[in-house]
């Protein structure tokens, strides 16, 4: 797929205020700092479309972007940052669950996982939430440029093994690096395949 146009549409805290659900949408979710906004910029080849930061907690709202006037990309705030109050955590959880429940046009969630880490409790819990809600999702391993391919493969193998303790089937997996533009074609191909427009 060729990205001819990528435009910012809106930032919202309330799902009710998000754009009409007339076009399919793909949402990026995952721990704070995992690289959601960077991956959106890499996919769209617009380095400043989504705001990124080396400090976790940069994205705080539900951000909609429209691509080629035919589908939405959504950048969501991250979870799992230790220095966040219980109140903020609950606010996040309420907002994201409302988002997942109410976007009837949600084609797929891209759940980003830091490829450098052992399976994280927060990620496994969030996979459980997606499964229970019946939301279609795939896993996207990020920041693979920061370590050897061997290490990435070993961590992914561990992640798969952990998932197979509770799941019969594994979701689709993508291996990416926003810094090296790795996985771009595969992700765009997947979006094109699942997008009925
Ligand atoms: P929040 O909005 O805080 O939830 O974070 P986020 O998941 O949107 O992360 P963001 O894209 O802002 O990236 C966090 C930091 O990781 C930034 O300093 C990025 O430059 C860096 N980063 C993201 N992806 C990659 C990658 O593939 N490789 C490398 N080396 N750095 C990356
Ligand atoms: Mg972000």
TrEMBL record:
Keywords of the record, alphabetical order, are: Cell cycle, Cell division, GTP-binding, Magnesium, Metal-binding, Nucleotide-binding, Septation
For this entry, list what GO says about its biological process. division septum assembly
* Residue intervals passing through the bilayer: none
**Residue ranges constituting the EngB-type G domain according to the UniProt record:** 22-197
Briefly state the protein's biological role.
Necessary for normal cell division and for the maintenance of normal septation.
Database matches in NCBIfam families: GTPase_YsxC, small_GTP
Q: What is this protein called?
A: Probable GTP-binding protein EngB
The record, for Pfam families, names: MMR_HSR1
The record's family statement is: Belongs to the TRAFAC class TrmE-Era-EngA-EngB-Septin-like GTPase superfamily. EngB GTPase family.
The record's annotation in InterPro entries points to: G_ENGB_dom, GTP-bd, GTP-bd_ribosome_bio_YsxC, P-loop_NTPase, Small_GTP-bd
Q: Tell me the cofactors it needs.
A: Mg(2+)
| Any one GO molecular-function label of the UniProt entry | metal ion binding
- Species, as recorded: Adhaeribacter pallidiroseus
């Amino acid at each position: 797929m060729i990205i001819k146009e990528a435009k910012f549409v809106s930032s919202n805290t309330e799902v009710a205020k998000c754009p009409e659900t007339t076009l399919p949408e793909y949402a990026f979710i995952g721990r704070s700092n995992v690289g959601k906004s960077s991956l959106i910029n890499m996919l769209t080849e617009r380095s400043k479309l989504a705001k990124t930061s080396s400090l976790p907690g940069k994205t705080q709202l539900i951000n909609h972007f429209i691509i080629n006037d035919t589908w939405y990309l959504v950048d969501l705030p991250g979870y799992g940052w230790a220095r966040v109050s219980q109140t903020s955590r609950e606010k996040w959880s309420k907002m994201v669950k409302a988002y997942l429940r109410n976007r009837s046009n949600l084609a797929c969630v891209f759940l980003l996982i830091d490829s450098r880490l052992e399976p994280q409790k927060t990620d496994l819990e969030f996979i459980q939430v997606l499964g229970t809600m019946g939301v279609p999702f795939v896993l996207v391993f990020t920041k693979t440029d920061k370590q050897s391919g061997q290490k990435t493969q070993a961590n992914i193998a561990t992640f798969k093994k952990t998932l197979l303790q509770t799941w019969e089937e594994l979701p689709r997996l993508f291996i990416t690096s926003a810094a090296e533009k790795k996985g771009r074609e595969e992700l765009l191909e997947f979006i094109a395949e699942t997008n009925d427009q």
